[in-house]
Amino acid sequence: MNQEKRSRGIRRHSRLSWIPLGCAALGLAPSAHSQYAPPSPPRPFAGFLNEWMRQQDPYLSAWDLGGSLRMRFESKQGMAVAGVPGSIDFRDHGADVTNDYFLTRLRYRVGYTGKWWNAMVEGRSSFAVDDDRWASTLAPARRGEGPESDTFDLHQAYVTFGNHKEFPLSLKVGRQELSYGEERVVGAFGWNNIGRVFDAAKLRWQTEWFAADFFSGRVIIPEDNRFNVANDYEWFSGMYASIANVPKHSLDVYFLSRNASPSAATAEPFPQVGQPSARDIYTVGLRLKSKPGELGPWDYTLETMGQFGDFKDPRAGAPAVRLDHRAYAFVAQGGYTFAKTTGTPRIGLEYAYGSGDGNPKDGKHTTFENLFPTNHKFYGYADLASLQNLHDVRPVLTFKPHPRLSMALEGHLFWLADTSDSFYNVAGAARGGTAATPAGTNFGVNPGYSNFVGSELDYIAGWALTRFAQIEGGYSHFFHGSYISQSLSSAAVGSRDADWAYLQLTVNF
Predict the structure, then answer these.
(1) N or C: which end of the chain has fewer CB within 10 A?
(2) Residue 19's CB: how many other CB atoms inside 10 A?
(3) How many angstroms separate the Cα of 211 from the Cα of each of 18, 169, 232, 250?
(4) In contact, 96 and 77? CB cutoff 8 Å
(5) Count of structural domains within the chain
């Protein structure tokens, strides 16, 4: 190949970089301030095949051939084993609350980028070993390999039309991830061994002053040994805009609509994640975040969300009609970074509030709807809570003693926002039995109990081994509080603390 041809190829490759630039302009990457962030590799890594192809011919830079392998061991003590009779969080004896298992996730992709369009197809294989959880609690006979096993399926397959360097609009159609802000209400749920995707269409309007996505789609239901399809009875639509020219800040505003019919809960026979009851919920939100370095060593983020619509309560004994839905949530976080200190430690404090339902019999529903979040990052790494009927006070210490090493020490203090409502798990489901459940043997609505749920201590560390491999591990201990002790006060059940630990290896190729 002569030098002139090689130069043309390099210039062409430069023009193809508009897509990742467009994503960055929307501010879609998670904040590095508010929680642990994996360490950066020592040098950028495009993938073994990609690097080889680009060395052979710059024209091949339009192609993207690669993937990743992630392997994780998890150990859980004192935590519910989904599907096992009598197994509930923090139960001390009388049922199995121990689960040690190994997860593997393999993703492999083929992509192509042209000047005015690009396409990507990504497959996924998710495996689980020794996971005692049932794959689908709606079908007890189908235990499978657990809810995070999905042997082979399509993760993403989409086409994008447009070039934001030439024209402000682009359109992305197909199976795709949706991820906005810090992923508190809309996220790809990357921690999960399967993840979350939508069959959706997304129109992006991007200028030098702002960027906005307008989207509509249906969430995909994971089902092992069956091709994953969308829930035909549930639609998720919205607008998410990011304004970058606010002095020293970025401002996000959004409107989200989740609409599910009564058939949504039973759309597929063996769902590996809970499907929603009937609801039409509309969320209006605003997120203000300081830009890095603009406030010296200080940083902060404020986010507020209000909801209206209607909701069919799926809990046993709930009214048969839809309830008028009015709810809200609020998050405030701030921190100080010691930039001149070894490891650049940051001390932060966060408060998160999700409203609860103070009067379940008044014909209204005021528990915040958490939508499609990545909750693992925010309300304790042990994954025992969500932003529903909750106060969470979270001190955070992050530091990098070495360029390849990231560490975080976090604490959480949890209270119920209202004791007339339930204690919700990480998936947004209410913990609790029925009216026939003996007192002191399960969780439920107990206005006379304490609202202090407990506290959690988390430690996370990650090491970038090479450009393409990273190891990560963590430990969490949940100290159960008065609400849990009172809820499980029966001598036949008892209450205890919970422990969670993991070790994970990720290899990109």
Answers:
(1) N
(2) 17
(3) 14, 10, 29, 11
(4) no
(5) 1
DSSP SS3 for 85: coil
Residue type at position 201: A
Where do we find the tokens 């998050």?
A: 331
For residues 223 and 30, what is the distance between their CA atoms, to the nearest angstrom? Answer: 28
DSSP-derived secondary structure for 334-383: EEEE-TTSTT--EEEEEEEEE---S-TTSSEE-SPP--B--GGGTS-TT-
Tens of pLDDT along 137-174?
Answer: 676 655 678 999 999 999 999 999 999 999 999 999 99
Cβ atoms 250, 291 nearer than 8 A: yes
Q: Is the pLDDT of residue 307 over 70?
A: yes
Which range of residues forms the domain containing residue 226?
A: 3-508
pLDDT of 458 higher than 70? yes
CA terminus-to-terminus distance, the chain? 27
Alpha-carbon span 411 to 458, nearest angstrom: 6
The pLDDT of residue 17: 37
Q: How far are the Cα atoms of 36, 130, 439 from residue 377, in angstroms, in the given order?
A: 8, 25, 33
Identify whether the C-beta of residue 129 lies closer than 8 Å to the C-beta of residue 73.
Answer: no
pLDDT at 62: 96
Residues whose CB is less than 8 angstroms from the CB of residue 2 and which lie 6 or more positions away in sequence, other chains included: none
Indicate whether 25 pLDDT > 70. no
pLDDT value of residue 139: 63
d(CA 335, CA 355): 25
Q: How far apart are CA 463 and CA 455, in angstroms?
A: 27
Strands 234-243 and 169-176: unpaired
Contact 30, 183 (CB under 8 A): yes
Q: Is 224 exposed, middle or buried (0-12, 13-18, 19+ CB in 10 A)?
A: buried
The CA distances from residue 363 to 127, 360, 454, in Å, are: 44, 7, 30
Find the length of the chain.
509
Residue 113 has pLDDT above 90, yes or no: yes
The per-residue pLDDT for range 239-251, each reduced to its tens digit, is 999 998 899 999 9
Token pair of 59 as six digits: 């024209």
Contact 270, 228 (CB under 8 A): no
Q: Mean pLDDT, the chain, as a whole number?
A: 91
Q: Evaluate whether 429 touches 367 at the Cβ level (below 8 Å).
A: no
Tokens of residue 222, six digits: 């994971």
**29-65 b/e with 16+ CB inside 10 Å = b?**
ebbebbbbbebebeeebbbeebeebbeeebbbbbebb
- CATH for 405: 2.40.160.100
